Amino acid sequence: MTAAALVVAALAAILHVYIFVMESVTWTSPRTRAVFGMSEEEAQTTRLLALNQGYYNLFLAIVTGAGIVATATGADAVGAALLYAGLGSMLAAAVVLVVSARDKARAAVMQGTLPLVAIVLLLLASTL
Predict the structure, then answer these.
(1) Are 20 and 61 in contact (CB under 8 A)?
(2) Which of 1, 25, 63, 81 is deepest in the core (most CB within 10 A)?
(3) How far is CA 93 from CA 18, 31, 50, 57, 75, in A?
């Protein structure tokens, strides 16, 4: 069960690295603007906000990755703390997104499903 949790956690981290790239590197590109449904003017106006938000996503991915490494190398308590912090923050961000903008429910589900599944698997692994 722990191995499955770590695989899903890794997928969540990879997704958040991808979100980082979109928000902090390619924010004003036509493809990223299409994903977020923005005009070129909106993208230029929000570029610095997106840059900052992208780095938050990267940091969550790094914390989660560190938790995966710690758990895989036997530092279970440290690994669990890092995993719950990273994955819990990812899930909380998805909840904030859907609560604050109902029209972003699809994005929130995409952002929050992997962290939720990983957390459930970690909880199950810790009780078995």
Answers:
(1) yes
(2) 63
(3) 16, 23, 15, 10, 27
DSSP assignment of 2-17, as one string?
A: HHHHHHHHHHHHHHHH
Pull the structure tokens for residue 71: 């758990």
Give CA–CA dist 28/45, Å, rounded. 10
Q: State if pTM tops 0.90.
A: yes
DSSP 103: G
Tens of pLDDT along 67-117? Answer: 999 999 999 999 999 999 999 999 999 999 999 999 989 999 999 999 999
Six-digit token string for 69: 């490494």
Q: Tokens for 105?
A: 């429910």
Q: Please state, in angstroms and rounded to a whole number, the distance separating the CA atoms of residues 16 and 57.
A: 5
